[in-house]
Amino acid sequence: MTPSPIDCRTAAERLWEYLDHELPDGPLEELEVHLRACAECTPHFAFAARLLRDIRGARSNDRQTEGIQSRVLGALRAEGFMAAHS
Ligand SMILES: [Zn+2]
Question: Hey, how many other C-beta atoms are within 10 angstroms of the C-beta on 67?
Fold first, then answer.
């Protein structure tokens, strides 16, 4: 079965599940096809993956993690990643 094409907005909605390895096979395949073809999403996903790694590295202190999460969201907005929702 050929995965159906998805747009950047759909890819963005699947970002966190993808990074958490929680996407089922179908949506995962659609996303990977999109990422291979889309020059715009690839840097966003690499950026988010790096941030997520930083968050996990800092998770030993719960109070700090909250601050880091809002910093991450702010950084994603600054990168234009959340703009698709407006
Ligand atoms: Zn895209």
Answer: 11
- Tens digit of pLDDT for each residue in 6-32? 999 999 999 989 988 999 999 999 999
Give distance in angstroms: CA of 71 to centre of ligand 1: 23
For the stretch 32-71, pLDDT in tens is: 999 999 999 999 899 998 988 888 887 666 566 667 778 8
Dist. CA 4–CA 29, nearest whole Å: 9
Domain limits, the chain: 8-85
74 with 80: CB under 8 angstroms? Answer: no
Tokens encoding 78: 């600054």
Find the 11 Cα to ligand 1 centroid distance in Å: 6
- Cα–chain center distance at 29: 15
